[in-house]
Structures are given as C-alpha cells and as structure tokens.
Amino acid sequence: MWMEAGLPAERLTRTVAAPKSGIVHLGLGAFYRAHGAIYTADAIAKSGGDWGIIGVSLQSPTMRDALTPQGGTYMAVTLGPEDIPPQHIQIVNQVLVAREDPQAVLEAMTDPTIRIVSLTVTEKGYCHDPSTGELNLDHPDIQHDISQPLPRSAPGYLVRALQARHAAGIAPFTVQSCDNLPDNGRVVRGVVLALAQQIDPDLAAWITQAGRFPSSMVDRIVPATKPEDLTYVADLTGYQDAAPVLHEPFRQWVIEDDFVAGARPDWEAAGAQMVGDITAYEHMKLRMLNGTHSALAYLGYLTGHETISDAMADARVAAFVEQLWQTEIAPTLTPPDGVSLCQYAEALASRYANPRIRHLTWQIAMDGSQKLPQRILGTVQDALTAGHPCPGLVLAVAAWMRYVGGIDENGHVIDVRDPLAARLKTLSDGVDTPVGKVTALLSVREVFSAEQAAGLSAPVTQAYQRLVEIGARDSIKEVLA
Question: Which of 224, 240, 275 is the last residue of a domain?
C-alpha cells in the first residue's frame, strides 16, 4: 500500500510547474495517457524540451472535467506481478473540448510553438473506408468540414489548422497517428490531403511538400478505467484521482523518424525505437496481438469469458490462440530484424494471461467493422493467396458475424457498439439461414472487398453454420482437431 491505512484521500493536484506546450493531442483517452504521454514525460525528464501536451476531446467534456481540477495530472498504475510505485503524470497542461469551442482548438493547433499534433481517435475517427484507406467524402462530418470553417472531424481539425498556419506563414506541424492502423501515417496523410484538396488545392500542394506524417506502432494493454478502480487508486496513492490509468508493465513504441525540421522529444531516451520504416513491426503487432485480441473478443465472449485473462485460463481457448500464432498468422509475416516471432508469441501469451489486467472481451469487440480489415482480413487474404488454410481466423470472422447479430448463444441480447451496428443487425435479421446471414454481411463493402467476399463465402458460411449447430467452444475444438 502506498498510503497509510485509514487516512482520507485528498484530490490529486499538480506538484511541479507545467512544461511549455509543444504537442496537441486529439483524443485524450486512457490509452494515450498510459502510453504516449508517459513516454513524452519520461523523455522530458531525461533530456528536457518544451513538449507539454494540450489534450483535445473531440466530443465529450468528461476528460476535461476530470483532469482540470487536478491541474491536468493523473496517476498511472502498473498492474503486474511485482509492486511498482504509481507514476504521477504531469505532462498534460490543458484539456480542450472541440465540440464546445472549436475555435480554441484551432488556435492551439495554429500556435507556432506546437510542432506535433498527434491523435488516438480510433479507426472510425479517420472518417475513411477501412477496406481501402480512402477518405469517405460522403461522411456527414466530412461534408460539414468541406463547407464550414469550424470543423467537426479529426481530419477537419488537422486540415483547417494547417490552412491557418499556411496563411500565417507558419511551418506545418508534424501529424503523428498513434492509432492501431496499418500504415497509420499513410492513412492520415491520405485523408488529410484528400480533404485539403476539396477545400483548397494549393493548401494540399503545400501539405504534400512541407508536411510530415510518420507512422508509429504502439503497444500497451490498457483496460478501460472502472468506477471501482478509482477507489483502488485512492487507497493505493492517498489521492482522489478522477482519471487514473491502469496498464500492464509492457510498453513499446516504434516511430518512423520523419518530423518537420526534425523537431520531436527525445523519445529514444524513454525507450522508444526510432526507425526508418515500421512496416515489419506494425504487421507483427497488428496481426499477432490485435488479430488474436479480436479473435478472443468474439469467440471469448460467445464462450462466456468476460476478460482476455479469463479466456486464456481456458486451456482450449489458449491452445486455439497458440495455433493461430503458429500456423495461421506467423507464416504471413516477415519479422523485424532480430525479432523471433516465437518469442513474441510467448510474451503475448504471458501478457494475455495477466489476471490483474481485466481487459473485457466486450470492450475489445467494439467497433469491429472498423478493426476487422486491419487485424484479421489482411492476414486471411495473404494466407489464402499463398494457399494456406486459416480455419481459426475464418472462425473468428464467423464469430464476429454471430456477435453483430445481437443475440448470444444463450439467447441474450448483446449490446453491440459499432458505427455500423444498426445496419449490420438489419442485414443479419433480414434472413433466416446461415448462408443468407453470411452472404448479407459479406456485402458490407466498408468491411469486405468484393474479392474478399468471394473468397470467404464458402469457408465463413461453413464456420457460421458450425457456430449455430454446436456453439463456439466446440467449434474451437474442431479447429484444433
């Protein structure tokens, strides 16, 4: 315990002066505060620099309201086998709410002292088609941002702020995606340039020439903070913290070293890997970690497991994940130099099994229509093209289809959280047979390309049929046989 038992907890507050701001971060959620913000705080502690963070919530004032009374500070608590003192993170200087005051956000992003704008807005925040990576010009927020100077979307804020900097003769900021997207730098560059082209072709040309969009690969398991966690952190630290983050001990950040004028924190001093090309790291993580996380989310949920660690405590499910790594995912990968995929899988298995990390299968299952193309379908396509069967990943796709139908194996209603939830359920409900349901869901081009749908029709239908007939647990047994 990090406090004397029985003492009342006081409200957490700032104990050191706020560093001057150099970064604006869009999407100040738990993951970034447990990952990129800590790396940046550690980099400043070791090497200095004016790299304080202005956080932006695009929609809700919840994070602003929680952090502002605490001076922007919060506790980061490591959940692992060893007791590690909590960190008091004091890198966030201010939290803005874009919906309430979009002009304030644009002014912050236009300030020449801001040299990096980073973002963790999840896949759906890019307003793109996940199957192609292209900006969805029909998205209502993008339609608004083309015609209105005060934006709504993350791409809109990036473009309008860059437009203001261009008009003022200020160099562009580096745009740094920290989301779990393949080629996330390329994706954000693509949506920014596509939107800029709609608004002002000269602006698009300037961004093309002067802008920088380094890709990055981020890794740390950060469960959503629950109400009971607030009590735990208060007991642990002696302070009331309205917005703590709890995370696993492991962390990794691989970043392409391509920044405007080379301006960035000394993240290497904090343990980040600065590289020329992150592709191999990114594919390894997206497919081996995020891919199996999604498979565990849908199959684990259907088999009654509330958390990833619960699922991994089930010997059958654990064996299934091991088989995914060894026979279906690893053969599609070229590992980074000096990295053993076998050892990487062993480390993942250990991380998944950590009972102190209550990472809910329901939480990971959210926004599956946005995640499936990057996490699973790319692997499936590569495997099938190479002539390698992938029955486990096909079963995971079928499990996603069963999940978005909104009824679990026991007839209970599932609270499906997905941008396409209503449409997916309508498609599923519109037909009665497994063949019909799979065919209907394979028609969703935001998720499946026409080529993927054609190749997956027969195997996914068969897997879906078995889920209906024998359930997820026995379907997993068949894949392992």
Answer: 275
Containing structural domain, residue 457: 279-480
Q: Same domain for 176 and 227? A: yes
Helices within 353-377 (DSSP H only): 361-365, 368-372
What is the model's pTM? 0.86
In whole angstroms, what separates CA 138 from the centre of its chain?
24
CB 405 within 8 A of CB 395: no
C-alpha gyration radius of the chain: 23
Q: Which residues contact 432 (CB under 8 A, 6 or more apart)?
A: none
Whose tokens are 């004016």? That residue is 50
Q: Could you tell me the mean pLDDT of each successive run of 10 residues in the chain, 481 residues long?
A: 49 94 97 98 97 97 97 96 92 97 98 98 92 91 97 98 98 96 93 98 98 97 92 94 96 97 98 95 94 96 93 96 97 93 96 91 93 94 91 98 93 93 96 96 95 95 97 96 88
pLDDT tens-digit readout, 405-449: 999 988 899 999 999 999 999 999 999 999 999 999 999 999 999
- Distance, in Å, from the CA atom of 380 to the CA atom of 131, rounded to the nearest integer, reads 14
Question: Of 257, 275, 293, which marks where a domain is finished?
Answer: 275
Spatial separation of the C-alpha atoms in residues 98 and 100, rounded to whole Å: 5
Q: Kindly state the helix (H) or strand (E) to which residue 293 belongs, with its residue range.
A: helix 291-302
- The b-or-e profile of 322-360 (16+ CB within 10 A means b, else e) is bbbbeebbbebbebbeeeebeebbeebeebbebeebbbb
